[in-house]
Prior knowledge:
Blueprint (H helix, E strand, L loop, with lengths): L9 H13 L4 E5 L5 E4 L1 H7 L3 H4 L10 H18 L1 E10 L5 E12 L5 E10 H65 L5 H31 L15 H14 L5 E6 L8 H18 L6 E8 L2 E8 L6 H4 L21 H11 L3 E6 L4 E8 L3
Parallel strand pairs: 6-7
Antiparallel strand pairs: 1-2, 1-5, 3-4, 4-5, 7-8, 8-10, 9-10
Helix pairs in contact: 5-6, 6-7, 7-8, 8-10
Amino acid sequence: MSELTPSVPASSIIEDLEDLYENAPCGYLSLEPGGRIFKVNKTLCNWTGYGPEELLGKRLHHLLNIAGRMFYETHIAPLLRMQGFFHEVALDLVTAKGDLLPMIVNAAERRDSEGKPISTRITFLRATERRRYERELLDARDQSRSQEAAARASLTSERETSELREQFIAVLGHDLRNPLASISAGARILLRKPKDETETKVLQMMETTVLRMAGLIDNVLDFARGRLGGGITLSRNADTSIEPVLQQVVDELRTAMPDRRIESDFRITQPINCDRTRLGQLVSNLLGNALTHGAPDKPVLVRALTDNGMFELSVSNAGEPISAEAMEHLFQPFFRGRVRASLQGLGLGLHIASEIARAHEGTLTVKSDSEETRFTFLMPLRI
């Protein structure tokens, strides 16, 4: 014998439906075929201030003023007779206190199988709530249009920014680099010819200036790419040795600053998956920083080695240690710390070096004390 699932008593269902009807957010009343009210819910009674006993048996006219009665007879009643329903009709109800209550009214007839009317259900929505809802829809539409306009403006701005970036990069990459290249080439030609000590110093000063300006252009160019959306890009290659690039950077700075000692120690025995040009730029920035801030009578040491699956590169110098305050901002753009008035730069070198390290999924750290300041770059050999 199978078990029967307990059923919900019909009386409980009827009570629930009755409660839903009585306390609905809209008002209801039902009319007999003769036009008299035979059912009304609590919501409508609360709005109008009438009790159910005061409305039952009355006609709808009881809740309308003269204008409303005329409108009902000339517009609403004919609609009901012709099509059996109407929707979204504005009508004012008169409360027990004589106040007008703006409503949005819907109605529908129930008919038997022969088409004769059984009753008419009328639904009342407070016009203030309806208008609030409509205002919310209009506000949402206006907000959507504003967002679309903002999105279009943002897209236009992005396009303009992209064009500006390309123009800016073109100026740095071409219009500024080319004159420097000509000056550098001319200075090298003149250095090959016999000349006195003063002329030699002037040409060496020109070479130093060209080298510094080329480094500034590289840093500004990379900073612009990063801030304008391009970012620092890499072209990795593990098949070509990095050592010649590092040696070239050291040799260039030795030539540009012949009065300074630069020592190098390269022990690279494994291939490195890196962007050789970018790492050359990193070393140039670190070495230039060491020459600028290090003790002029002490050497600057550049080390590079591969060990235990890592590539380590460091640049160290003697001199005054970096202050704790400067340490907090050292890799931020445009930070120059406290330098002598004669020293020039934009404060982008260390920032760009740290970005190059990050692009290689490596780290750039610094330790500084009274004996030595050392910047160390670490990265995995293969990524």
